Automatic annotation (TrEMBL):
Residues 1-21 form the signal peptide. InterPro entries: Pectin_lyase_fold/virulence (IPR011050). Residues 21-87 are annotated as: Disordered. Residues 33-63 have a biased composition (Low complexity). Keywords: Signal. PROSITE patterns: PROKAR_LIPOPROTEIN (PS51257). It comes from the Bacteria. This is Right handed beta helix domain-containing protein.
Amino acid sequence: MRLKAGSLLLVAALLAGCGGGDTGGEEQPPPATTEGAAATTDAPTEAPAGKAGLGAAPTTKPPATKKPPPAVLRAGNPNGKASVPAEARAVDVSKPDRVVGNGTPASCTSKAVVSAVAAGGVITFSCGPDPITITLAQTAKIKNSTRKVVIDGGGKVTLSGGGKRRIIYQNTCDESLGWENSDCTNQDHPSLTVQNITLADGSSIGVDPDIEVTNGGGGGALYVRGGRFKVVNTKFVRNKCDSGGPDLGGAAIRSLDMDNDGPVYVVGSTFGGASGQGNRCSNGGALSSIGVSWIVLNSLFSYNEAIGYGANQAANGTPGGGNGGAMYFDGNTFTVRVAGTIMERNHAREGGGAIFFVSNDLSGSLKLENSTLRGNPSDEFETLAGIFYRGTTKLPSITGPKPS
């Protein structure tokens, strides 16, 4: 429809009267306030909800973005279904005997850790809300008179050896830690539990493997001789021990003379876990023992290495070692059970890319239950893929997938 010229003039006049457009006329006064209506002020009024884009500035602040909670350690094989007996579970730490720190990162020092471990009991940490790494200036040592030691990192604490020293040391045959028993190799305490923590960059390089009474070879992160011992929901990364030598081993854990020959429990824990995070030693990139029984449940072993060469006994002109990329077990009568566990991408320069198991008198046995072993190369010899075995039976007992 077309509008005539007169009609256009009429529309323009109506618009001017309504305040629309700039007509050069007088500014219209604001409407008078009435009871119940908001009084006019010089401050901008709040825009109606959902209409801030119409020119009125909102007076409410957008909701603050919540900081995501810090990650809490989850180690092991989350799909592992092996049943965990009561004695292998984490210890209740709701009423600790000692707390490292007063709520700030600065209060969580090497000295505080070493002192707490020496005192024993149930130990927890209060280092603030975020994950923290505490680099130890000296090894935390457990006194032989201590009945129980529980070290619980709450899923946020990493204890580091800084690439220079062991992290935790228990040895009932070390007189400097107190003498409890004339037969130091058969003592039911200390009872050590390490749980909900990461142990990183521990080293036992340079410790004389022939002086086992005082130190012994291996055990870059943890050396445990005598008493009892278990590990729950713990991660071991980049730990190391000597690169050559027969029998010595266990960049993460070295265990000897457990009370009644074990067992040592390893539950829901990770050794390595990613490229560049693995543990390395002459034998047993992760675990090593002589005459000790083990029960390993719902755990993960990957990228660990046995880097010695010459095997055991050492070939002429070699330092010896290179057996058990992840696990090295030797002795006579002992048992090892691995259940609900993944072992992959471990490597042995000699035998047993994943597991080296030798019972010298053929009285020991190895059981694998619903565990996955794959891609664990043995450079020189193996009985099965990734396994070298000599025990009471011709082959280890295997339930579930075959090693590949």
